[in-house]
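> example.struct
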């Protein structure tokens, strides 16, 4: 029983580091980033329906849906607008 408790404690302690892991999208300062409005327009042109748009670390990040209606979490390079990482359900 003590082993199960120890294993659960170790797993729980690792959660914050896992949850906070986001990609590194750029090393450029925010003054070089495209504006949020320009990025939102680019995201829309890619067919995403955005529910949440935010800055996460060195990335623009969205939560929303693809043009096919699948849930999406996507990280973008804020300078180029390129997709750095995406997680699409379905």
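> example.seq
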């Amino acid at each position: 029983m003590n082993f199960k408790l120890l294993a659960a404690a170790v797993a729980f302690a690792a959660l914050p580091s896992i949850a906070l892991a986001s990609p590194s999208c750029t090393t450029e300062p925010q003054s070089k980033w495209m504006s949020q409005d320009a990025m939102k327009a680019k995201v829309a042109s890619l067919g995403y329906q955005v529910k949440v748009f935010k800055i996460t670390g060195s990335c623009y990040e969205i939560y929303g849906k693809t043009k096919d209606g699948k849930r999406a979490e996507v990280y973008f390079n804020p300078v180029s607008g390129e997709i750095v990482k995406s997680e699409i359900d379905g």
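> remarks
The helical segments are 2-19, 36-45.
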